[in-house]
C-alpha cells in the first residue's frame, strides 16, 4: 500500500468590523503550554500574543501603582500583573526556543570521519526458526568504558531517528557503556559512528550526590545506568537518557537520578547539552512531541532512606512504595524545568507505586506501566474526566484519565504488586487509513474490539523453571473493556485488601518455557521490551533471546519465530541476553545486554494491518514507517510476453481551498481536490483521513477549531479492477453557522490520502 501525504485544506476567515476585531482573545485553558500537541509557528505566535497582552496590562497596573504609591491594593495588583507577564514571557521564550531547535540534522556526511572502535560478535550455532535470518552484529561502545577491549556491548534499549538532510535513519542505543549511534545507510550492517561514553556522562558533586567516581582501567565499576528505554526528539535531533540511582556503582537508596539531554544533530559527534536532576530516572518518555518528558521509577530515587522516595523538594514519602512520574518541560533544553506535582499517583489501587515505563500510542494517549497495572491518560485536548464527570483540558502536567487497571498475575494475592511488575505495554489502535474491520473474532467465536486490546509485559527475572513470585514474567494480552469509566481511579480501592483491587481482563499469556528455541530451566526467562507490527509482536526474553509472537487471536498467542545465540566458551562467543526487540523499516533490531546490537531479517509476511505510525516509548510522526511489499511480477506462457509490476500510484494536485468564511452568516462552503489514480490491483480503495489528534475531523486555526466537522472524509472511491489515470471526484464541504465564532486567520488541516488494495 502506498499513501500520498500532505494534501492541505485551507480556508481564510474574512475580517469584518472595526479594528478592535484584531485584538487577541484572552488566554484560556486551551492556550496552556502543557496541552499543546506540537510546537509550531502558530503556538509560538499565540504565546507571544498572550505575553504582549499581559505586558500591556502589567504596564497599566504599574502606572496606576506609581500614580498612587500609598494604595496597597494597586501595589499588589501591579506585582501580580508583573508576575503574570513574566511567566507568559518566559513561556513565549521557551516556545520560540523549541521551534528554533527543529532541524534536519547534519547537512552532509563528514569526509573521511574517524570512526570509534567496534567489534562484531559472531552468532555461531545460532538457534532460530527458519523464518529468521541473522545478518550482522555490532558491539558499539563496550559495557565498561574503562575496558575498551571488552566484547560486551550491553544495551538496555534502542530507538531510531530519521535524518532528513542525509535521507536515511540512524539507530541509537544505550546501556552501561553510555549512548551509541549507528548509521543505517546500510540497514543490514549498521555502522557505529559515534557515542557518548560513561566518562562523558559523569557528574560532579552537587546537592543530590557525591562526584561520580573515576572509572579505573581494569576495574569492573559500572558506569552509566541505564536509560533502559531511550526516548528521542527527531524534530530537534535530541536524545534523552534517564539516569538510574544505581549508576556509577551506587545502590538503593543512594545515588542520584536525573535526565541527560544530548544533541545528536551530528551523529558522528554527539554532545551533552544538559544534565538535569529529576527525582526519577529509570526510564523517560517524550510527551506531546517532546515538549515534555515523563521520567519514571525506580523503587527509590536517591533519597538515602530505604522505602522512602523523595519529591522535587526533597521531602520523603514513606507512603510511596516506588517512584511515580515526574514531568519536565524541555522546550528550552538548556533550562529544563521539573514540576513539583508528579503524575500517575495512586497507581496501585490508590497506593503510589513504582511507575516503570510510559508508552504513547498512535492517538497520543500516554500509557503508564508499573506495580499495580497499566493506565492510559490524555495529555492534550479537552476530555471528560471519568473521575469527576467534568470536561476539562488535559495537559502533560495534569492528564485526564482514560482507561486501565491491574493486570492479573501469577503472584499470590499477598505478593501482588511486589514481585511481578507491569513493565511496559502497547495499546492497539486503528488509524483512519486502516479500513479493516474494527473487531476481531476469535477461534472460539468471541468478538473483541481491536481498540480494547492492550499488550503487556510482566517482568519477573527468574529462570524458566522457577516458581518464585509465580514464575518468570510473561507477555500478556488484555482487554480494556469496562475500564473506561475511571474504575482504576475509584477512591474505594485499597491495595492492601485483595477484595478491593480492580483488574482488567486477561485474555492469554505467553512464556517460551518448553517451546522450540528455549534454553532450558535455568536461563533468564522473563518477558521484556517489545514492539508491534500488524499482528506480530517482536519481544526480548533475556536468555531466551528474541521471540516473534502471533497475536491475531489475542485469546490464543502463538509463537511464530525465535532467535538466540548460545555461548561458546572455546571461542569466547557471548550468549544472547536480550532486552528489547524492534521492528524497523523491514528489519528486526535486537538490543542485547551482552551482545550489543543484532540485526535480523523476518522472512515471512507480516500478518494483520500495519499502522502508519511507528509507536513504542513515544509515538513519533517522523519515524520511518514499516516497509510493505507492493510489487509482484506476472508473466504469461513461455513465449513472448511482458510483466506488469504491481502498482498503486496516487498523485495529488494543488491543495483544495475554500472561499473566504464570512463570520455571522450561516453558509456551506465547497472545495475540490484534484488527484490521479493508477492501479494494477484487482481492487483498490481511495480514502482520506485526518490523522491529527488535535480537533480530529475539524479545521484548525492555531489553538482554535471550527465547531462543525469537515465533510468529505472517509472512502472517496472504490475500484473493482485496474485503472489508469482516473480522476476521482474529491469534494469537501464545510458548514459555518451564523453563531459560530471565527478566529482571524487561516483554518486548515493536513489530511492523509490513502490508496490501498487487498488484491495486489
TrEMBL record:
InterPro entries, alphabetized: LVIVD (IPR013211)
| Secretion signal span | 1-23
Q: Which domain of life is it from?
A: Bacteria
Where in this protein does the record put region Disordered?
A: 101-125
The record's keywords, sorted A to Z, are:
Signal
Q: What is this protein called?
A: LVIVD repeat-containing protein
